[in-house]
Amino acid sequence: MPNTDLIQLEKKLLEKEEKLEKEKAELVKLREQTDNLREEYLKHLETISGVTYEEAKDKLLNEVEEKEKASIAKIIKEKEQEAKRTADKKAQEILVDAMRHGALNYIAEYTVSVVKIADEDMKGRIIGKEGRNIRAFEQATGVDIDLDEEGIIRLSSFDQVRREVARRALEKLLKDTRIQPFRIEELVNETKQEVEKIMFEEGEKLAHEVGVYNLSAEILSYLGRFKFRTSYGQNLIVHTLEETKIGIHIAQEIGADVDIVRLGCLFHDIGKVVEGEGSHVKLGVDLLKRFNMPIKVINCVAEHHEDKPFSSIESIIVYIADSISGARPGARYEDYEEYVKRLTTMEDIAKKYEGVADAYAFEAGRELRVIVNPTTLDDASTILVAKKIQEEVSKSMAVPGEVKVTAIREFRTVAKESA
Length: 419
What we know:
single chain; 419 residues; mainly alpha; Ribosomal Protein S8, Chain: A, domain 1; Hypothetical protein af1432; three-stranded mixed β-sheet; 8% strand
C-alpha cells in the first residue's frame, strides 16, 4: 500500500477518535444534567407532598405490608411447618453423613499391662537376690509388679505412659542375660527416651491427620500420650480422630467455624493425659490457657460435658461429635461384672471394721469414703481405722496406684425448748 494511503487512513482514524471523545464528553454532560433535573424534581415533589423521599418510601412499604399482612402471615406459617417437617430429616442426613466421614483406617494399639513369660524361673531373676531387682525396677518405672499369676507378669499403674515404659523395658530385660539394678536403670532410661520420641511422632501424626499444623513440641507430646490412653476400652487417638472428622463435617454442613471445631475436637480430652488434681475438663482448660489457645477453643473444651452452659454453636458441635463417637455401638466396652465386684469388695473390707456404718467406692476404686458411727469411734480412732482400711485394700486387692480413704465422722445434736 502506498504511503499516501497510510497517511489518509491514519488521518481518518484520528478524526473518528476525536469525534468519539466529543460524543463521550457530551454524554457525560447530559448525564450530569439528567441527575440534576432528577434531584430538582425530587425536591419539588417533596415540597408539594410535604414528605421526604425516605418517608414516602417507608409509608408505601407500610401500606403494602398492612394490606398484605394476612398473606405474609400465611406464607410464614407455611414455611415454618415445612421447616419442621424437613428439619429432623435434614439433621439425620447431616449426622449420618458426618459419621460416614468419621470412618478411620487407623488401627488402635491398646496399652497392655501384662507381659507373658515362657518360664516361671524367670520371675526369680526378675525378683533378684533379696528382692533387689524388683525394687530397682519399681523405683525406676514408678509401677507396681504383680507376680502372683502363673505365666504372666502384671504391671499396675494409673499412669499409662509409665506402664508402657515398664512393659517395653521388662520385655527387653527378659531377653537380656544381665538382670541387675544398674542394667535395669539403664534400660528404663533408654526406654523412656524411646517412648518420648514415639509420643512426639504420634502427636504430630494425629494433628496432621485432622489438618492442624505448627503446634509446639510440648503440646504434640501431650497429644501423643493418647496412643497409650484408653477410655472405657476406646483408644483415645481413635476416638479423637473419629470425633474430629465428624465435628468438621457437621461444621461445614451448617456453616459454623470449622477451625474452632477442629481444635476443640482435637483438644477436648487432652486433660485425660495431664497430671494434676481435678477433672480432665479442668486440667485440659488450664493446659490450653497456658499455651494461649483462642478462648473459643478453650470454651469448647470447658463445655463438652456440659459443665458450663454452651457459649457457641461450635461448642455444641464438639459436644455432639464427642457423643456420637463415644456412644456408637462397639466404640466402648467394659467388664461391668468385674468392675462392680472390685468396688463391692473394697466396700466390704471397710464395712467389716467396728464402728464403720457404711462405705462407698468412687473414682473407679481410687477413693473409698467411709462413714463412721460417731458414738462408737472418736476422732483418733477414726484416723486409725482409715489407715487400717487403706493398708488392707492395697495389700489384698492389688489395686494399681494409691487408694485414698476418706473417713467421715459427723456428730449432731438438737436441743428443743419445751413449750
